[in-house]
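Project outcomes to date are best conveyed with an example. Our students and postdoctoral researchers have been running inverse folding experiments weekly, and each run begins with a structure described purely in tokens. The record below, which covers 334 residues, was selected by the lab manager from last quarter's runs and is presented without edits.
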């Protein structure tokens, strides 16, 4: 028994030794495999986070709308540099667009002389075609059909100053011959040049808008620094419940504006802002190329608080105010 037991015991010990070694090797291999997978999973998660972060910076919730300036600039789009132009000339400080002063409806020689000698930064004027010979662009607002100054004469005087320009086109026929006269100004990379037209029907709008498609076919190839001012025809009646800008109106405007390479400002009537906050807020959020320009009719009534709501919720550099100085002064103090 003794001689049989001893060899068998040695055999068992050797077997368990090899089994232990095999188990240790298996455990080490298992540990290496788990560690490798863990690192790969962590790296994959990190890569996904970085990719998601990049996507979130490049796109808004709507996948077709670019958000970051770096990407849009590479695609040839531009941001509004109006404030930067006047800051670089020490005519403005800070980035609050309410500081910008406007001369409005500068449609005569006398009005132009006053505007050029005023502290205004921007000069706004209306352009139509003269309805008799010589047929050429003139400075007038319908129902006027003639003027004592042509667009060519008007531009020659303004070009001698550092004023910014906003031209409001009341008819499509005036656009093409006017752009031909703007060649020198378009060659200036810095001077603010805004091209405006009411291209959609808006709240209580009774006049026919300028044809949007035809207008864009003429202005879409303008230099990328040109500001396109795209508005709605509107109306306002004292003592009545005036409707604001509807969802259909802002959706239609954004759809037509989203692929433009130029900065776009939307002229909005001050008396309609209170009832349009949700709609205009949505519109402004769709692209950082977009701004609002608040204007008012001669007999319109509105509360300054209606404008302060927008100033509270949006960057003050993204809302311009083509308003009387007394009203902009109150906003500056708010």
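After processing, the design step wrote out the following sequence:
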């Amino acid at each position: 028994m003794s001689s049989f037991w001893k060899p068998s015991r040695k055999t068992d010990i050797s077997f368990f030794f090899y089994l232990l070694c095999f188990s240790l090797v298996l455990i080490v291999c298992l540990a290496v495999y788990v560690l490798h997978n863990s690192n790969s999973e962590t790296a994959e998660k990190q890569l996904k986070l970085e990719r998601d972060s990049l996507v979130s910076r490049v796109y808004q919730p709507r996948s077709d709308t670019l958000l970051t300036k770096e990407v849009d600039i590479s695609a040839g789009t531009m941001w509004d540099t109006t404030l930067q132009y006047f800051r670089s000339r020490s005519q403005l400080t800070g980035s609050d667009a309410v500081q910008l002063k406007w001369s409005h409806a500068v449609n005569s020689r006398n009005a132009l002389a006053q505007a050029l000698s005023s502290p205004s930064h921007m000069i706004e004027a209306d352009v139509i075609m003269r309805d008799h010979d010589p047929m050429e662009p003139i400075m007038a607002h319908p129902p006027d059909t003639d003027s004592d100054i042509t667009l060519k004469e008007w531009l020659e005087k303004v070009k001698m100053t550092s004023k910014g320009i906003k031209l409001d086109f009341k008819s499509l026929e005036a656009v093409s011959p006017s752009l031909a006269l703007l060649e020198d100004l378009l060659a200036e990379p810095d001077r603010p040049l805004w091209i405006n037209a009411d291209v959609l029907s808006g709240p209580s709008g009774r006049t026919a808008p300028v044809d949007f498609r035809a207008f864009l076919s003429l202005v879409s190839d303008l230099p990328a620094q040109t500001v396109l001012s795209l508005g709605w025809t509107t109306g306002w009646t004292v003592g009545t419940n005036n409707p604001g800008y509807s969802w259909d109106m802002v959706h239609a405007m954004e759809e037509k504006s989203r692929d433009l390479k130029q900065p776009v400002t939307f002229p909005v009537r001050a008396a309609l802002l209170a009832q349009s906050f949700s709609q205009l807020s949505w519109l402004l959020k769709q692209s950082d190329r977009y701004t609002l320009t608040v204007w008012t009719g001669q007999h319109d009534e509105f509360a300054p608080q209606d404008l302060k709501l927008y100033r509270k919720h949006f960057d003050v550099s993204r809302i311009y105010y083509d308003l009387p100085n007394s009203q902009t002064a109150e906003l500056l103090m708010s």
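The chain is about 45% helix and 15% strand. The domain at 71-333 is CATH 3.20.20.190 (TIM Barrel). The training component of this project remains on track.
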